[in-house]
Amino acid sequence: MKQEIDFIKFNPTQNMTILVKSNHPIEEYKHIATKMMSYDNVNAEQVGFIEKSNKEEADAHLIMAGGEFCGNACMSLAAFIASEKGLDQDALAELRLEVSGTDKLIMCQVKKMADEYLCQVAMPVPNEIEKRTIKHDGCDLDVILVSYQEFTHIVIEVEQFDKWNRDKAQRLAKLFGSTLKANLVGILLYKSHSAELAPLIYVPHLDSMIWERGCGSGTASLGAYLAWKNKRGVVAQIKQPGGTIKVMADCYKEVLVSLKIEGSVGIVAQGKAFIGV
Questions:
Q1: Could you read off the pLDDT of 198-220 as tens digits, one per residue?
Q2: Pick from 13, 135, 167, 221: CA 20 to 30 A from residue 197's CA?
Q3: Catalytic residues
Q4: CA gap 44, 154 in Å, rounded
Q5: Do both 133 and 19 map to the same domain?
C-alpha cells in the first residue's frame, strides 16, 4: 500500500528542499521525510511540512521533519506563498512565518524575478557565541560555538576543504549530536581568505548527515561569527558549492542586534509522491 503525498520541490542555492502540502500526523513526519529525501524517490536534502498557523499574524506555519530551524526552507515557503498569490514581476511581498526551532515569527521579503524569487529572511540571533578548545583525535582543536534555542553551529576555520577536514567534521557532528541537546548540529568549515563555506548539517532525530551545497542558517551563523570576531557589522557574500548567499549582520555597540540572509529560490517541481507506509 502506498501513501500519497502532495509536495513542492525548491532550489534555494542548490540546497534542494521539499515542502509537503498535504496533512499528515506529526508522528509520521520522520518516515515521510526519510522516504522522500531518498535517491529513489523525490530526492532532496531536507523536508518541511506546511501547516496553518495558530497565530493570526503569521501567514503559515513551517515544521521541519527533525524539528530544526532552516533558513532555506523559510525562503522556499515564502517563495511558494508569493507564487500562490500571483506576485507580479519585480513586485515585493512581506510575509511572517511561524517556524520550528524558534519561538519568534520569521520576517521574509520576497521579490519576483524572471524565473525565480529573491528572498531575504530575518534570521534568529544566536543566544551565545563562544570560543572553545576541545580534545579531538588526541589534539587540541579551537572551535567557535554559535548557539541558538534548539540548534548549534560550530565554525572551524580551515585552509582547505580536503578529505582530512571533512572526515574530522563528520566525526565532530556525531560527537556534538550526542552531547548537545539540539535538533540540529552544523559543522561550518570556513576558508576566510576566499569567503568560502562548506556546511555539514546533522539532524540527530533523522540521523541525517549531509554536506549541503548551500546553507542559509549556516551562512547566518557565519555572519554572526564574523561580526563577533571583528566587533562590528558585516555584509558578506559567502560562496558555497551551489552558489552565493548574502549575509548582513548589524551591531549596536559591538552587540549583534540583527541578522539577515538573502538568496534566490526556484520552484522546480510540484506534484504527488508515493511512499510505502
A1: 999 999 888 899 999 999 999 99
A2: 135
A3: 70, 215
A4: 23
A5: no
